[in-house]
Amino acid sequence: MCTVCGQMFCPKGCPEYEMGGGIYICSYCGADIMAGEEYYSLSGEYYCSDCIYSSRRTAGE
Ligand SMILES: [Zn+2]
Ligand SMILES: [Zn+2]
Prior knowledge:
Blueprint: E1 24-25, E2 32-33, E3 39-42, E4 45-48, H1 49-54
Antiparallel strand pairs: 1-2, 3-4
The structure holds zinc ion (2 copies).
């Protein structure tokens, strides 16, 4: 939690707020993974949920 604004993820008005960038970068598509966003961590690599969902398959179909 931020000690300045007291929130888990700083709003833009907070001096601790970091402009733009995400916390992680998706290893597959390069998209920023923002604070509070769902992501997947596999073998030390980070993937956004879009990439995971788009590569999801059902065997036999
Ligand atoms: Zn803050
Ligand atoms: Zn991605």
